[in-house]
Structure formats: C-alpha cells, structure tokens
C-alpha cells in the first residue's frame, strides 16, 4: 500500500486509490537482526519483503541502509587518515592549508555515532575545510538507480537526502551547535563566507540530481527550534529552501524538507518556502505541536509526509485504543495531502504488528 503512483498522485494533486502508507523501517530491521531479536517470521525476509508483508511500502533513501545511486569523488591534494580505537573513530584530513581532525563515537552495534570532536575549532579551519568541499565531485549513476528501481518494483519510492544546508551543516556536521552560534556572533563575516562555500559544494548535488529521473527529493535537514531559532531559520534556511525548491521545480521535481524536532514556532514559515511538503513533523508527546497546529500552518497546500509519532508503536507507552484513534484522526484531518508514515522511523523496540494495523485501518476507511 503506497505505490509510487499513489505517492506521486498526492504531490500532483491527482485522485489516488487510498492514503499511501509509506514507511522507513531500516533501523528497526538492522538493529533487531544484529541483536538477534528479529521476530522469527521475518528472519529470512529482505527489507522490501517485510514491507510487503505489512501491507506498507518502502521509502528508500539512496545510501541509507541501501545502495547509493550518487557517486562522490574527492580530487585535489587531500589525504584522509582514518583510525579506529574500539568504538572511537578518528579522522585526520590533510590539505595544503592545514590538517583537520574529527572524532566520533559509535554505539555498541556500530549503526549510529555522535561527534565528540568536530572538524571546525575556529575560523582558521574554514580555509582547509573549504578546500575539501570545493574538491568534491558528484555524479548520478543511472545503472545503480535503474537496478534499485527494478528491485523496488514501484512498491514505494526511491529518493535522495541532499546534504544539509550551510547552517545545519555547521551545527550538525562541522562545528556543533554552541561553536556555530559563537562563530556567527563573533566572526559573522568569515562564517557566512564559509557558509557560501558549503552551498557551492551543495550545488553539485542539485545539478546531479536535477537531471536525474528521481521525481521526489528531500532537502535532508534535521530542524529543531530549540537549536535553530525562528530568527536563524528565517535568515539562513528559508531563502535557501526557496532557492532549492525553485531550481528543482524547474527540473520537474517535487521536494520536501525534513523537520523532525520541536518546530511549532517555525510552522508559519514553512509555507513561505514554496516547497511541496514537509517530512517527519512530530506531534506531542514527542514533539511540541498538534495535528491542528500543522493543519493551520500547512493547510491543503503542502503535503504532510509521515505524521504518526514513533512512540505510538511502543505498546508500553501508547494503548491500542489511542493508537487507532490517532491514525483515524490524521487521515481525516489530511484526506488529500497526506503520505502516511512514521515520524520519522520505526524504532527497534517497536511492536511491528502495529504497522500492519495501520494497513487494516486504511483498508477499513477505504471501504
């Protein structure tokens, strides 16, 4: 349920069969498999097979627990030196303008990590990292895309997360939140100059995907108002989203942005972006908004992608009665502009039978 054609119909505002049920379950799949906690009936199934059994479809992001149809190559005088010490990964990047160092710490299974030392410590690191970014080349690989598309068989969508915008890249990838804010406050001119380098680097990804057959794309952010204030969002994010959306629309694409944190104060600005939709908006208790808040801000103009908070799939937290009522409510609230999914992924301790339960609710409402 949630074929490519049904999902495309939502973006194109065409009549569709039923509300598409389109999930991201990769982390649930790989973690339970690694821990030996995968329910026996799914033991020999692929990720796509599991979706089919649930009656859902799969939202496949290139390179995210799947093959990548985007190839990245580094040119220039750059040397990468990686070292692993237990769960700690140390990366040194040697450039003609200096050496950068990053340290990340993996979880016990190695599926996720967090930075404990960022590449950027001060303005002196802008030049070497800028050199690295300007020497990254990007290419769309049609052979890999076509194979992945055949294997998916229309049972969902193949999509792509673009690299984060400059502000998000600084906060999440390169400098951390506190240092980014300090750099903008104390060295705004130099920091904004580096941010332009990040966007020029991102341009190559947009050019590669713009001429590809991929129809639905994601700006790949991780917005949370507790980190990205309304002032920062309006100044550094909205203009970039407008620019990227205009470019992709000119290429015949649909584009949405990933907003997976607290974001109620930002909702009124989302429609200003001109984007087609928003992915992963999360309602209370995991987020700070209600369905009514989202409806008031997005109206019928923007597509809501996802909508059911991940916590609803954990039985000890949310009862079946409350679960059923919420699924019915979100479908009735967004009857024409909803691609139902999990905000934003199915967690490893989830009761996977609830995924199938959503399918049954959609079937019943469809009848």
Describe what this molecule looks like in 3D.
The structure is a single chain. By secondary structure, the chain is an alpha/beta fold. The chain has 2 domains: 4-75 and 120-366, TIM Barrel; 76-119. The protein is 41% helix and 19% strand. The chain is built from 13 helices and 16 strands. It has helices at 4-12, 26-35, 47-54, 126-134, 142-152, 166-174, 177-186, 188-210, 230-250, 267-270, 291-298, 320-333, 353-366; strands spanning 22-23, 57-61, 70-74, 79-85, 88-95, 98-106, 113-117, 136-140, 156-159, 216-218, 254-258, 277-279, 303-305, 308-309, 338-339, 342-343. The chain has a 5-stranded parallel beta sheet with strand order 10-11-12-13-15, with helices on both faces. A 4-stranded antiparallel beta sheet has the order 4-5-6-7. Strands 1-2-9 form a 3-stranded parallel beta sheet, covered by helices on one side. β11 (254-258), α10 and β12 form a beta-alpha-beta unit. The mean pLDDT is 96.
